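Regression report. Comparing outputs from two consecutive submissions.

Submission 1:
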Amino acid sequence: MPNPPTDANDGPSSGPSRRKVLGAAAVAVPAAAGLAATLPSLASGAPAAKKLPGGGDLGPNVLVFDPDTAGIQDKLDEIFKKQEKAQFDEGRYALLFKPGKYSGLNAQLGFYTSIMGLGLSPDDTTINGDVTVDAGWFDGNATQNFWRSAENLALVPKNGTNRWAVSQAAPFRRMHVKGGLNLAPDGYGWASGGYIADSRIDGEVGPYSQQQWYTRDSSVGKWKNAVWNMVFSGVDGAPAASYPDPPYTVLKTTPISREKPFLYLDGKDYKVFVPAKRTESSGTTWDSGTPKGESLPLDKFYVAKPEDDAKTLNAALEQGLHLLLTPGIYKVDAPVEIKRENTVVLGLGYATLVPQGGATAVKVADVDGVRLAGILIDAGKENSETLLEVGPKGASKDHSGNPTSVQDVFVRIGGAGVGKATTSMVVNSNDTIVDHVWVWRADHGDGVGWETNRADYGVRVNGDSVLATGLFVEHFNKYDVDWHGDKGRTIFFQNEKAYDAPNQEAIQNGDTKGFAGYRIDDKVTTHEGWGLGSYCFYNVDPKIRQGHGFEAPEKEGVKLHNLCVVSLGGKGQYEHVINKTGDPTSGEDTKPSTVTSFP
C-alpha cells in the first residue's frame, strides 16, 4: 500500500482499481421497536381506482433517533455489521437524526446506508463523533466503497479528522465538518473518486490516494494533494488552478445549480425542502442563513413501500402527489411516469427500482422543474431499451427558467444478477441538470460478462443546454457518454472502459480502435467540458489498443479543458487522449497522458 504524501501537492502512486467478486450477502436487520418514525399508518399497494392517501409512516428500515434515544451506538453497529460487506444484498437503510446534540457516536456506514440530519441546516443536528467509511472489509482497498451517503449533519470528529474513504455513488452533501476530512482508507490504499456538495469543511481535506474527486459549491479550509483529476466549482478555499501539475481544475462558480431535496422536521411535522435554483453559485446554500426554496408537507407525498407496484406509484402521481420512496427493492413492470411539472420523486436509503419484462424504470415528461433524486435503478434480466428517460424523444420545450434535475441517481447493469439495457440513461429534455450520477455496467459480482450484462451505451444526451456536474459513467460495451445535444456542458467526468472486452475485434468501431468514453457528435456546434478523465484496464486481453478516450468535432465552439487518459497497470493502452491529439500511454506505471486545451 502507498504511504501518505509528505508534501501538500504530492499524492502517492495509485495503482489500478481492480475489483473482486464478493461472496456471502448480508442478512437484513429488523428495525428496533420505538425507533421507526411514528407517523399515521399507511396502507400500501392500494388499488389504483381508490384515492391514495398522502403522508404515512416511513417503514421499518427508516430509523429515527433523538438525543434521548437509548442504545443508538448499538443500533448503528448492528446495521453496519449487516451491511459492511453486503455489496449486492437487498438491505436498505436510512438513519435519521432529529435536531439536537449527540455525543460519543461513531456511525460506520456500510452498503446502502444513508445517514441524515433532520434540521433545516446541518448545524441543527450535531454529532460529537464521526461518520466513518473505511475499507477493512476489503483489505484496505476502498475502490468498491459504493452506495452510501451522508447528508445534513454537523460533525465534531473525535480525533479532529473524519474518515470518508469512498468511491462512486457515495455523496457527501450539506455537511459541516468542524475539523478535517480524510478521503483515504486506513493505510492509504486505493480509492476511486467521490463527490462533495453544499458542504463546509473547516479544516484540511486530505485526498491522499484518491484518484479523482469533484467538489461543488462548498467551503474548505485547505486542500492537501491530488493524484489524477481533482475538480472544483464554486468552492471557497479551493487550491489554485494548476492542471496538470498538480492536476487541479478550478472554476470560480458553478454555472447553474440546485441542491437536492431533503426530508426535515418542522417542529413535529415532516416536510421535504426543495432548494431554489442558483446561477453562478459558490459556497453553501445554508452558511449565511436560511436557504432559499420551498417546503412541501409530507401529506403532499405518497409514502411508497417496496410492495407498491408501478400501477400504484403512477396512480399516486396522477392524483397530484409527489413520491417519497422508502428503503427497499421496488419491482416495476411498467415505467414510473412523471408527467406533472415540479413533481418531486425522492428516495431514502437507496430505494431501488428494478424494471420487469424489459420495461423502462422511469420516464419524465417534457415539463418544467421535476426533481428526481436519491434512487438506484437496477437493470432487469430482460433487456430494457432504456432504464431512465428524461423527456420523450423529440422533446423541445425551453426549461431554462425551471429545469428538471437528476441528483444522486445511480444506474446499475449487472452485479446483483443478470441485467441488460441498450441505453441506460437518455436525456431528451433541454436544460436538464445532471448532478452526481454513476451509471455503471458491472465489472464484478453476479451476472457479469461481455454479453451476459450487455449494455451498449451509458448516457446519451439529445437535449440542448444540458449541464452535468459530477458525471461518472463506466464499462459500457460501446460509448459510455454519447452527446448529441447542442450547448452542453460537463464539469468533471470519470470513466473506465469495459474491463472484459475479449479482444480487439470486440471493441472495433469501424476504422477506430474502440469507442470513446466521451463522444460529442459531429453535428454539435457548441460544447464545453472541464476536468475529464478516461481509464482503461483491459485485463482479459492486455494487448487491446484504445484509439482515444475522447472524441469531438474540431470546431471553435467545442472547447474541452484538462483531459487525461490512464492505462491502469499497462492493461491495454490509449493511442491518443482526444481524436489524434495527445501522447499515447505506455508501460505499466499508470501515468496519465494529458491535454490541457482542445482544440
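Submission 2:
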Amino acid sequence: MKLTMSFTALAVVAALAPPALAASQPQEMEKITVTASRMDKPVSAIPNTVTIIDQEALQQQFRTGRDLSAIIGNLAPSFSPSRQKMSNSGETLRGRTPLIMIDGVPQTNPLRSGGRSGQTLDPAMIERIEIIHGANAMHGMGAQGGIINYITRKPGADGEQQVSLDVTVPNKANSRGTSFGASYGFSGKTELVDVIGSLGYRNNGIYYDAKDRVIGVDTTQGESMDSQSKDFFIKLGHDFARSRLELMVNHYDMDNNGDWSGVNGDRAQDIPTGAIEQRQPWEAANNEVTTSSLSYSHTNIAGQQLHLQLFNQNFQAVYGGGCFDSFYDPAFEGSDRVTLCGSGKQGENLFYEQSRNKSNKWGLKTTLVAKTVAGLPLDLAYGVDLFRDTTEQDLVVTGLSWVPQSRYDNIAPYAQLDLEPLAELTLSAGVRYEHARLKVDDYKTLWGYGDKQIAGGATDFNETLFNLGASYNLSPSLRLYSSYSQGFGMPDIGRVLRDGKSFPGTAPGIADSVALSPIVTDNLELGAAYQGEYFSAKLAYYHSAADYGARLALNADGFYNVKREKSLVVGIEASLTAYLTDKDDLGMNLALMQGRYDSNDDGRLDTDLDGANISPNRINLFWTHNFDNQMSSRIQANVFLDRDFNKADGSEYANFDGYTSIDASLALPLLGGSLSLGIQNLLNEDFYTYHAQTVGTNARYFKGMGRTLNLGFSLAF
C-alpha cells in the first residue's frame, strides 16, 4: 500500500456556541470545552468550527420531538434533514459521513454501515451534543464529515430523581397515531461511588402527512413509526485523590411492530408511497445495541494528565424483508424453508428474505497531556489508539452469508502540539499514523451477485496524517482561524465485499479489489467569529476533497452499492444572532454547499452528488423569548432551498422542490416541574422528504410528517 502524506489541520477542542447557547450566555463562550478532543483549549485558540448543543438547547428541541437527526439539523444546518425513519442512511455532515459517538465510543459501523447508527440511545440521557465540523483524524476511522459526540449526563452532588412523560398527537387525532414516552432517572453520590441511571420507554404510533394520509412504511431499511424502544443506562464513578474511575453501560432496543405494510407510490404520477394495516410476512426490522466503556483519568503522572478509555459496542440489526432479485438462489426452489412471493426479472419464483447485520467493536484510547513543555508556551498531547471491529451480515431465512465475517484491526500512535508564540495567536500541528489490517475469510457471493468464489486473506493499509492550524484574535471580540484537516476511513466494506463487480478475473480475491482502499478526505477551512454585546456571528468556508471517495448508489432492488470516485464538496456555513433585549434573541443559521464527483474516471468532476451523499442548501431562522414568570418560547423555521442535480452532459437527473417547515414551542413551570407544549410543522406544510425526492424509488417516495402536537411534563424530586 502506497504511503500517503499530506498536511492537515489539528482538530483540537473548542467550540463556538451555537446561536441557541450563545444568545443566552455570550459572556461564557471562552469557558466551553469539548470532551471529544484530546486537549482542553479556550475558544480563542481553535482553528476549526465546532457546535455545542447544550442542555437548554436540547430541552427546547425536545418540546417538538425526539428525533436526534432533526434536532442536529435544526441547530447545525450542514447536517442532512432527518429521513423520519429508523434508518439514517444518506444523512451526512458537510456532504460526508460523520462519526457518531456516545461519550467517545464509536456508534458508526464502518465495515457494514447499515444506516442505524442514529438509533442507539434514548435522547433523555444526553447532557449535550458536540459537533466537530469537517474531516479530522482525532478519533481515527470514520470521520470524513466530522464528529457527532453524544455526551451523557453526570450525577449531581445531591441525590435526585426525575420522571418525564410526553405524548405526541397528529393533526388527525386518533389512538393509532398517538405516540408516548416515559423515562425515570436517578442519581446520587456517597463517599465511595457516584451513580446516575435511567430507564426509558417510547411507543411510536402511525405517522400522517399534511393531508391526513398514513405515511408509507419502509419495511426494509427500518421504520420508526409503529415501533417501540427501550433504553437502560447506568454510569458509576469513584474519585480518588488525583484520579477518577468511571463505568458506563447503555443498552438500547428498538423494534418495529410489523403491523403495517407498504403500498408503492408512483413518482411519475406524483403518488406518494402509502401503507395499509397488514401484518408483515417476515420479522419486523429492529435494533439492539449495547455500548459500554471503562474510563480512568489522572491529573498528575510525572507532571502530565492521563486519560484511558476501554470501550465496547455490540450491535445487531435486523432489516425488513421483501421479494428481491438480489436474494434469489435456485438452490432453494421447492424448499419448505422459503415462502414464495412473486416472480423476478428472469421469471424466477422469488421468496421472502431479509438480512441481519452483526458488529462488535473493541477499542482502547490513551491520551497523555503535558502543559507548558520545557517552560515554553507549548502543550503536547500524545498517545496510541487500538481498535478492532468484527462484522458480518447474513440472510435470516436461508442462512446464507451476504457479507462474510470481516475483521478490521487498527493501531494509531499520534502526537499533537499547540504553541502560543503571542497572546493573540495559537498555532497547532500534529501527526497521526494509521496502520490497519483487514482480514476476510474465503467466501462466495450470493447467486444474485454472480455466485462468485472469492479468496479471502489479509491486506494492510498505512496512512500518515499531518495537521496544521492557526487561530488569531484581532480583538477580544473578533477571531480569524484557518486549518487543513484530514479524515481517515474505510468505505462500507460490506457493500464492497457483497458486490461481485468489485472482484474481476477468473480467480478473484480481496487483494484484487482496489475498492477496499481507505478513504482520505482533506478539509480546508477558513473562518471568522465575532462575539459582541449586541450580536454574535460566525462565517466559515470549507473545501472537502477525496481523490478516491466512496459514493452510495442505488441498485434495482433499492440496496446501496459503493462507487469509488474522486469527489469534492465546497460550502459556506454562517450564523447570526441578535440580542434584541435581555429576553429576546433572533437568529439565523445558513448552510450552502455544492458537491461533484468524477463519473467516468477521467479526472474531471462532472456530475452532481445526489441526495444520498449531500444535504440540501438550508436556512434556519429562530426567535426565543424568556418571560418574567420563568416561561420561555421558541419559534423556528427550516427553509430548504430548491436544487437541481445534473449529469456529466449537463442534463438534469433529479431535482428537489424545497419547502419551509415551522415549529413552535412553549415551556412553563407547573406543580414543581416543567410543562412543555410544542407543535411541529405548525402550518401543516405538505412535502416529500429530501431523500424521497432526490433518490427515492416508488417504494420509498415518502411524504413528510404533517402537523403534530407534543405535550410533555418533567418533575425532579
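Expected: both submissions complete independently.
Actual: both completed, but the second showed a warning that disappeared on reload.
Relevant detail on submission 2: The two ends are 59 Å apart (CA to CA).
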